[in-house]
Write a structure and sequence with these properties.
Blueprint lengths: L1 H4 L7 H9 L2 H8 L6 H11 L1 E3 L14 E3 L2 E3 L3 E3 L5 H4 L3 H12 L4 E2 L7 H7 L4 E4 L5 H14 L3 E5 L9 H5 L10 H8 L2 H15 L32 H10 L3 E7 L2 H9 L4 E4 L13 H12 L4 E4 L5 H9 L4 E4 L1 H33 L12 E3 L6
Helix pairs in contact: 2-16, 6-7, 6-16, 8-12, 13-14, 15-16
The structure holds flavin mononucleotide (FMN).
Protein name: Alpha-hydroxy-acid oxidizing protein
Family: Belongs to the FMN-dependent alpha-hydroxy acid dehydrogenase family.
Pfam families: FMN_dh
Length: about 400
């Protein structure tokens, strides 16, 4: 593994490797966003607009990036965002991600559209969280909540930014759909990517059968490759704060709402009893033109009071993470690069990626002159556009 990882110096390096490794529609599914990619660009631009003002000549020995959340101590202020279809992209992808996160003591969020049964993932990684997409239908909600409870999860994340799917034109261009439709072109694409075909797809089929959407509801859903099967989503566009109140009454563990951007929604989440929120524009995959999450952060933090605010979308470096922490985020989630790492180098690749980020944070804390995450605040930051921090 050391040899394989030698050339991977930053999370960004995994993208090029994954592009070569994966069939086109699959790489397109992970890398893509929607419409004109305005939000993807806004996420990066917002990070560029914030600069550090470091402090010097402080004793930096014993600095730590540990933090506590929901009564647990985590080794770094970042985790792995929920990503659907990971087990089609990487060999046993959800398990590779969950094991790596558990070993490195950072959270991993198992997606509602994952392809390995949540009970199995929870067994190999007791620290992972489960993310659900839920419709308004109370029987559907109760079925999922009860299943996740029975499996022993401590944290349930409800993603609320997909009432309908974003306009992902790139998926149409790449001929990607869920389920994927079998075609000569898809088969040829597989043959042209033999490492994926022989290292992920073929062994998955041989050992585990055709993957299916295992965790979207209380029972098994559609297979991931099928000609004439429609996936059932229920009426997700009818879920409201009332539904969240109902979930709060039924779910005894930590409840997290993912996919908020507005300060008033942060405050509503708190008032219905959420234990934390995740500011997210879904990595630019839903509403194109949505505000960068870093720009939404100060308002949400002010509205959230003592409720922890987590954040994702476009974070790639330890420095990006430290900017969010200085603006009041408790933790940052990262999506695509971890899935690329799992695709090309499996669990060891994900651990390597976690190690790279951790080293960047540690180095930058020393360069910034801060020994703990609590010390970081807006006084370490400057807005290059002259706006107030
Ligand atoms: C391939 C892929 C699948 C995703 N699937 C889900 C999902 O099932 N549930 C969810 O809440 N978010 C999903 N997301 C969004 C991520 O959780 C996260 O918000 C986003 O990827 C963060 O941006 P980043 O990839 O730029 O780090 C997905 C993102 C990607 C890239």
């Amino acid at each position: 593994m050391k040899r394989k990882a030698a050339g991977v110096l930053s999370l960004g390096d995994y993208e090029a490797l994954a592009r070569a490794h994966l069939p086109r529609p699959l790489f397109g599914y992970v890398a893509g966003a929607c419409e004109d990619n305005l939000t993807v660009a806004a996420n990066r631009e917002a990070m560029r607009r914030v600069a550090f003002v470091s402090r010097v000549l402080r004793d930096m020995a014993g600095r730590t990036q540990q933090l506590s959340l929901f009564g647990e101590n985590w080794s770094s202020p970042f985790g792995i965002a929920p990503m659907g279809l990971s087990a089609l992209i990487a060999m046993r992808g959800d398990i590779a991600l969950a094991r790596a996160a558990h070993a490195e003591n950072v959270p991993m969020l198992l997606s509602a559209t994952s392809l390995i049964r949540l009970e199995e993932v929870r067994t190999v990684s007791p620290s992972c969280w489960f993310q659900a997409y839920l419709p308004a239908d109370r029987d559907w909600i109760d079925g999922v909540v009860d299943r996740v409870t029975k499996a022993g999860f401590g944290t349930l994340v409800i993603s609320v930014d997909v009432p309908v799917l974003g306009n992902r034109e790139n998926l149409i261009r790449e001929r990607f759909s869920t389920p994927l439709k079998p075609s000569l072109r898809l088969a040829l694409d597989g043959v042209l990517h033999p490492r994926w075909l022989l290292g992920t797809f073929a062994p998955t089929l041989l050992r585990h059968g055709m993957p299916a959407f295992e965790n979207s509801s209380a029972t098994r859903g559609a297979p991931v490759i099928a000609r004439n099967v429609e996936r059932s989503f229920g009426q997700r566009d009818r879920l409201t704060w009332d539904g969240i109140r109902h979930i709060r009454d039924r779910w005894r563990g930590n409840l997290v709402i993912k996919g908020l951007l507005h300060a008033e929604d942060a405050s509503l989440a708190r008032s219905v009893g959420a234990d934390a929120i995740i500011l997210s524009n879904h990595g630019g995959r839903q509403l194109d033109g949505a505000i960068a999450t870093l720009d939404a952060l100060p308002g949400a933090v002010a509205a959230a009071g003592d409720m922890p605010v987590l954040i994702d979308s476009g974070f790639r470096r330890g420095s990006d993470i430290l900017k969010a922490i200085a603006l009041g985020a408790r933790m940052v989630l990262i999506g695509r690069p971890f899935l690329y790492a799992a695709a090309v180098h499996g669990e060891a690749g994900v651990r390597h990626a976690i190690g790279l980020l951790r080293a960047e944070i540690d180095r930058n804390m020393a360069l910034l002159g801060t020994k703990s995450l609590d010390e970081l605040g807006p006084d370490y930051l400057h807005r290059t556009d002259g706006a107030a921090i």
